[in-house]
Every structure is written in structure tokens, then in C-alpha cells.
Amino acid sequence: MNDENMRASVMLLRFALLAIVSVLAATSAHSQSLTREELRIPMAAAGSDGLEALLVRPAGSGRHPLMLINHGSPRNASARPDMEAQALAPIADEFARRGFAALVVMRRGYGSSGGGWAESFGQCDDPDYTKAGRAAAADLTAAINHMARQSHVDASRIMSVGVSAGGFATVALTASAPQGFVAAINFAGGRGSLSADEVCEEDELVAAMRAFGKTSRVPMLWVYAQNDRFFGPALARKMRDAFTEGGGKAEFVAAPAHGPDGHTLFSANSIPAWTPYVDRFLAKVSAAPVAPAATPRDSAPAAASRTMSPPSSLSANGKKAFEAYLAAKNHKAFAVASDGSFGWRSGRSTLEEAKQGAMTNCEENGDDCEIVSTNGSSN
User: Fold this and answer.
1) What is the share, in percent, of the chain residues with pLDDT greater than 70?
2) What span, in angstroms and rounded, lies between the C-alpha atoms of 118 and 124?
3) Which of 109, 235, 284, 356 is deepest in the core (most CB within 10 A)?
4) How far apart are CA 44 and CA 164, in angstroms?
5) Average confidence score pLDDT of the chain
6) 233 and 252 in contact (C-beta within 8 Å)?
7) Beta partners for residue 185, in sequence order
């Protein structure tokens, strides 16, 4: 081969390598981008308002396994209407980066979902936890039935993860699992917590778990921190034992103490603490489609407004929450304390209502909160 032909061959090889690198780079960038969409889930019992929901999934076409993300229930009933799906956006992002279509759904009586609160267990001295769990599971089933018909959802791989009352709802859901439901995760699940280490009729809660276990057959992961002040270690093990004695399948993890109250383990602020448990479980049940994709620090869902940068005092998870805030509907506000505590509200009737809600959320953990952004702009 002469020099001219050699140079031509080298040039062709370089072009081929560049083409391959370009394709790989485009594929990588595509896998890191997420699509976020606010939804209303139709449900007859929820009336014309339906159920408030937030869907986060990998961008582009293709079907993805569905991961339902279920919120807890505040001890103060007056706080239920102020809850919103957007608050769990950072958690949804984590599952979407693992290849899931992650759906945060607000059950009846929470946030802007219609139908009125349906999860009452009655009086503290005579609770019907089984009835309450089944009512919550009905909302989750409605969400699954709706999402299973969507073109971007793989209806043969449906899962659910929940915390506190949402964990309890997830356990109840496994007792009447819909078609395609393959696995579930319960973080600190239970009901009836009155105050720290005080639960209405613990034996009735244990009995409800036993009842659910009689018909639950999908693999589950149960995670309870050693210092959970809602449902402590002894009660957690009683619930697990009752559930498995009934026939349920539950891998139990006694997680180390987490913060002042381990009940907050599964939260947007503690993502590095809980994701290893989730990843190991999903690998065991072959439910995880891919490993989590790294997300560039400056990337955000396409719908997000980029009118301002996150406050410097925020942690990495706080900055994720701020990106979710930017993508949310007006009227909205974001509050921050000097120690990095934060709170936000979106989709309120007035801007003043959004600001009050953001301050209330922030002041749960911070002492000197102030509004730093309204409607996506600096304040």
C-alpha cells in the first residue's frame, strides 16, 4: 500500500471512530435525560378531580417498568391538603434514572386529589386497619390500571414502593395484586401512630399485616430503621412475622439509626442512605431494568424553567428539589434556611398561599427560613 492509500485508510478509520463515539455520546446523553409530567388519574371514587400524580420517566420512546411511589400520612390531619406529588420528585427521579416510569400518586384526601379522605381506621381504641389499607390499595390499583394502558409503560413489570402509611398501602396492595405486579418495597410501613413510640392498638396493626399476608405472594422488601419513632423495631418485627406467617414474602432489613427519627429514612434528603437497599433488592428479583444513569449537575427535565440557580446553601438533594420546584406549576414558592433546610409549594390558588406553605415546610426543620424564589424567579 502506497503512502496516499495509507493516509486515506487512516482518515476513513478516524471518521469511523468519530462516528462511533458520536453515537455513544448521544445514547449516553439520551439515557440521562428525563421527562416529567403532571397527571390526573381517573377514578370514579375520586370524582371529576381524579388523583393528583407526577410521572417521571426516561425521555424518548419505549416501554418502561412502572414504579408506583406512595406517600405517608401526617399525624396532623389538617396538613393532608397541603401535600403534593412534586415534593417526591427527587425520589421519582432516582427510579427514572434506573429505567422506570416512576409515578407519584396522591391518594384520595391528600393534595388536590378528589373524593375525600378514604383511609380512616376509625377510633383509636378499636381501629380497623385492614379496611383502611384496602381503601388505600384501591387508589393504587386505579393508578396501575390507568398507567398499564399507556404506551410508555411495560404492564408486565409493575412495582410499588411506599413509606409509612404509603408502605402500609403497598403491603395491602400486594394482597390483591393486579396483573403484572411483580415486586414491592415497604419503608417503615404502618398506621395509627399518635406520637413518638405510641400506636393505636398495636395488636390490631399486627393482625392487619397477618390478614394481608394470607393472599400476598409477590416478593417484598421491608426496611425499618432502628430508631424509627413511629413504628419501632419490636413492632416492625411483629408485623413482619405476622405477614410471613400468613404466607407473605418479606425480606426484612433492620437499617441502622438514621437521624433523630429513622422514620425519615426514605426521603428526598436521604437518597444515598436508602438506594443501596433498593438496588440490591431489585437485582435479586430481576426487576431493575438498568443501573442508575449519572446525571450531569447542570441537567434538568426539559420542562424546567432555568430562570435562577439553586441557592448555594442547599445540599445535592436540596438542589434536586429546587429543580423540581422550577419545573412545577405556578403559583409556587421556595424557602431556605441558613442550615440548608428548605420547603416549597406549587400549584396553589394564590402566590401568598404558596409562600405560606413553603415557609411552613421549611420551618419544620429550620429556624431562620426565608422565601428565596417565587414562580421560578429570585425573590
Assistant:
1) 85
2) 16
3) 109
4) 26
5) 85
6) no
7) 161, 221
